[in-house]
Amino acid sequence: MRALQIIVCGISLAAASYSATAFDYFQPLPRQVPVPADNLITKAKIELGKQLFFDPRLSRDGTHSCNTCHNVLAGGEDGRSASLGANGQTTRRNAPTLWNIGFQTVLFWDGRSKSLEEQFTQHVLDAHITGYTNEAALLTRLRAIPGYVGAFRRVFKEEITLAGLAKAVAAFERTLVTPNSRFDRYMRGEKNALNAQELRGKEEFRTVECLACHFGVNFAGPAPGPALGMGDGFYELFPNHPGSEYDASHHLTDDLGVYEYDRDPAHKRLWRVPPLRNIALSAPYFHNGSAATLEEAVRIMAKVQLRKDLSEQQVADIVAFLKTLTGELPVITLPRLPVTEGFGVYE
Ligand code: HEC
Ligand code: HEC
Which pairs count as long-range contacts for 133-138, CB under 8 Å and 24+ apart, including other chains? Predict the structure, then answer.
């Protein structure tokens, strides 16, 4: 088990440092997604990754592609509190959006995965997600599709491997960027891009101290760079102040986050601070999808993270601000998938 690097921002620290530091907690989306040196992006690799992303043969019974639960032809997820997996059971957690996922330093709600490549290899062999439980079955399936065999030879100069699949899909995922939100346009100097209520909401996001945890390019803590390397996570407790009525009504302490996989009692209720870009498009909210609307999520966040009761006006203002984080969704055309005569998914 890898050592968990935990950076806890600390509310008081953040409150003290807003005015004085050079670090700007509000940051526009960078134009470039960080790309690891061992998985450089090429057009052919992205195309192959895109085919795989949309191919339901990546699930054992042929019912699910990645896009089923992370619908990048729409808002980037499936709109459900939990997804229906390829094994017919609902997943334990909510499917996160994949927009701007390339800016995340760790993956999954509990940050248990260090890179998009690693995330893929865990996810595609998760029985609750794809129905596959072993690598050999997946590889045998895909190696029977000549179109993929040829594409792998062209892109990776080798036969189909799990590592190659992960690299191709990760390369495609790094293209899922939504630039030019109104917030970004404001940050780049267009002072009229936000109206009075949105600006008020932005200020409240700071003064209420949401910004103590949700800052940086994805509003998910330090961006990849000097402060936080790829593979290092930014975690916080949720609920930070247990004991409110929401623990029971929204089942906030049923799933204990990081503790669930590393069993370290110190990590109970620890979660990755999640990104907030395009948040208006990814209802319902929280790891268990228990908050139906953004208003509800904001009110609960203030209460359980900061022990604050927001007025209706504050909630409306902060929600208005959060809606300015919706970027331009890229046009994505469906790829043609390689076909095979006589191929059936049923064994
Ligand atoms: C059955 C629905 C389902 C399918 C199919 C599915 N996913 Fe997911 N995905 C989820 C859920 C649920 C999570 C969150 C699980 C968790 O955090 O424990 C998730 C998490 C992720 C994450 C991490 C997101 C983040 O914010 O850290 C990525 C990346 C991802 N999936 C990519 C993929 C790819 C690529 C495929 C295709 C191989 C795929 N998913 C197929 C449901 C699905
Ligand atoms: C102490 C750190 C902290 C503070 C302060 C905080 N958050 Fe969060 N926020 C988190 C964590 C951790 C989660 C993930 C919760 C989970 O696992 O379901 C989260 C989740 C969210 C979500 C749901 C994300 C999703 O994809 O479903 C929203 C919306 C949100 N926060 C907004 C806010 C707002 C608005 C404020 C200020 C009122 C705020 N947060 C204050 C840490 C914090």
Answer: 135/162, 137/60, 138/58, 138/162
